[in-house]
Amino acid sequence: MPAKRPPIPLSRERIIDAALHIADTQGLRRLTMRRLGDALQVEAMAIYHHLPRGKDALMDALAEHVTAVHVDPSPDWREGARQWCRASRALLREHPGVLALALTRPPKGRAAMALREQTDQLAEAGLPDAPRAVRALRAYVFGAVAVEVQQSGWAEPMGEDDEPWRPPSAGGGDPASDADFEVGLEALLTGLAAR
Predict the structure, then answer these.
(1) What is the pTM of this model?
(2) What letter would DSSP give residue 105?
(3) Are 85 and 137 in contact (CB under 8 A)?
(4) 12-34 pLDDT, tens per residue?
(5) End-to-end Cα spacing for the chain
(6) Sign of the CA dihedral 59, 173, 69, 80?
(7) Domains defined for the chain, CATH in brackets
């Protein structure tokens, strides 16, 4: 008889990955600690060893996961801003199930550090009033992704007996949405340059 494989140790990373999977396939409202425990094959209480504040800490961790974006510095603030906006959009589109958390939870932990890093990079590259500009860029990216998710029909309400939600493709998306995003981004960058 083959030896039984030992269970994979529970970790914060495993918890977040499983929670993202549930949120992206079934929706955020179906993400419960009990359902998460079942997905991880542990008692729900075991999760609290890694997230002592429970579901509130989990929601913060998920928001942080999809908003902690890092890009390499660029000597041109416009190119740095483009890279940051594109990377932010890609990460949010990859996990539409937690978009609502990204929109409503203030940046904490790694997300706050990444935001400070981006503001500093853009300021050093010559962007005037970088904090205000970064707020405008974030608002644009979050709003653009929210519209894409809405138009995709991904977040349509579902009944108890409906099939799980299917997130939109994370691999680059619809060319029309990509083109619309770039047009809006260039308009915003032009406006920031004129300030």
Answers:
(1) 0.84
(2) S
(3) yes
(4) 999 999 999 999 888 899 999 99
(5) 73
(6) negative
(7) 56-193 (1.10.357.10)
